[in-house]
Amino acid sequence: MKKNIFIKSLIALVFLGALSACSDMLNEEDLKTNPNSPSDASLDNILIGVLIGVGEQHEDTEVRIASLWSGQLAGRSRQHQTFGVYTVSSSTFGWYNQYNIIANARLGQAKATEQGNTIVKGILQVSEALIFAKLTALYGDIPFTQVANDEFPTPIYDDQVSVVYPGIISLLDAAIVNLNAGTGGTFSDFMAGGSADAWIAAANTLKARLYLHLGDYSSAVSAAQDGISDVSGDILMYHGASQTFDQNLNYDFFYNNRSGDTDFDAPSIFGTVMQSLNNAKTDNTALDYHIHNNAGEGDFPNTTDGMFVVDAPHPILTHFENQLILAEAAVRDGDAAAGLDALNDVRAELATGNFYGLTINADTQALGLLYDAYVDADFATDADLLAEIVKQKYVLLIMQYENWNHTRRLEALGELDVLGLVSTNAPTDNRLPGRYPYPQGEINTNPNTPPVGDDEQYNKLAIFQ
Question: What average pLDDT does the chain have?
Fold first, then answer.
């Protein structure tokens, strides 16, 4: 049902009209005069448009660059070859789409308040939080407190650690209150079927992710315990099979438009990390082929019968991530037993062959699908258990920008050698990139944009220092 709602309602994209920069967001006079303004749309259509925007933001070029920079992908030709050696500039990036989604989410929240629909308001608040979380994780300090306010046409950049992260967490807390209130509802939520409980769990999983970034492990554990408790509660972007309309954007990139531009061969470390997890209790061969071996023909994304087929759902917030946050945070907080339990929960689900809305086909499963439960004796030290957890998370965050957050956290903790990630650009003295440069459009229009220095992509964000 979720997928059918999405396919039938994709026309709602017309309500994601471009807003040129933060300085143009929610200009009241424009909203009064623009016949395409989403303020004139129904609440359900605004919700659909926002959710489609959220989904697109989790499959876009920014996410592929993050996959290159975390070592999952390797760049082979054209611009992705240069991205693979960290060659970018301010003109590479743009974020008006992100702030447009936030603006539309705010419009929907106002309409939901007028209609007394707390469920839709809560869903839109989680959606807004997802976009802000991506923006600050990639760029650092961002316009946050003054956006969507006519009084501030050129909003200030708020401090990432002291303002933006706590602000997003507060937004998620407000969403949980609204979702718990349980008034109203919607038939247009193609991600979770309008379930308030599913969005409450998703909000807690996102909170757990943010607390993990902050190094607040006890809060991360607490949030994850209320997070997505089963793969049936995964927040996924659903797709169809129509080119330029509703197909999976990774399929479109890997198969249609940029075949051969990227793959999983060295210097990608993805296959190496995957293989390092194999042992007497683990056989990742089926998952390996499902993701990138394309029926054994090479280290290319599997667009034939695996993760990147044309109508494959794409993960946004998932049970796998939730449990691996719980596992890592618990071990770091001194509770290795809870960490082991959470890791085994992930392994039990992997053993079913279910993977982000798809089931690994029987022929592929026959190649090797084994995830027996671990026991304490399988790990000599807590550090060994932690290494297993962070490697498993690296694999399961495939083609998600959160994986770059994962590697930057490990680098800041001095633990990157667990994965073996090294720079692919020797002239940079083995430096790894730490951020995306601020977009040129924002530099041109907002005088509050912080100065851009040379090789800005090598600066480390405060949250990952």
Answer: 89
Confirm whether pTM is higher than 0.70: yes
Secondary element (H or E) of residue 263: strand 262-263
pLDDT of residue 294: 54
**pLDDT-derived band of residue 426, with 50, 70 and 90 as boundaries?**
confident
HEC per residue, the chain: CHHHHHHHHHHHHHHCCCCCCHHHCCCHHHHHHCCCCHHHCCHHHHHHHHHHHHHHHCCCHHHHHHHHHCCCCEECCHHHHHHHCCCCCHHHCCCHHHHHHHHHHHHHHHHHHHHCCHHHHHHHHHHHHHHHHHHHHHHCCECCCCCCCCCCCCCCCECHHHHHHHHHHHHHHHHHHHHHHCCCCCCCCCCCCCCHHHHHHHHHHHHHHHHHHHCCHHHHHHHHHCCCCCHHHCEEECCCCCCCCCCCHHHHHHHHHCCCCEECCCCCCHHHHHHHCCECCEECHHHHHHHHHCCCCCCCCCCCCCCCCCCCCEEEECHHHHHHHHHHHHHHCCCHHHHHHHHHHHHHHHCCCEECCEECCHHHHCCCCEECCCCHHHCCCHHHHHHHHHHHHHHHCCCCCHHHHHHHHHHHCCCHHHCCCCCCCHHHCCCCCCCCCCCHHHHHHCCCCCCCCCCHHHCCCHHHC
Q: How high is the pLDDT of residue 39?
A: 57
User: pLDDT band at 219, cuts 50/70/90?
Assistant: very high
State the sign of the Cα–Cα–Cα–Cα dihedral 93, 96, 98, 99: positive
Note the pLDDT tens digit of each residue in 127-154.
Answer: 999 999 999 999 999 999 999 888 999 9
Average pLDDT over residues 68-87: 90
- Please give the sequence-ordered ranges of beta strands (E in DSSP) within 330-418, or none if there are none: 354-355, 358-359, 370-371
Domains along the chain with CATH numbers: 2-464 (1.25.40.390)
Q: What is the mean pLDDT of residues 266-294?
A: 92
* Element holding 314 (H helix, E strand): strand 314-317
With a cut of 80, say whether residue 5 has pLDDT above it.
no
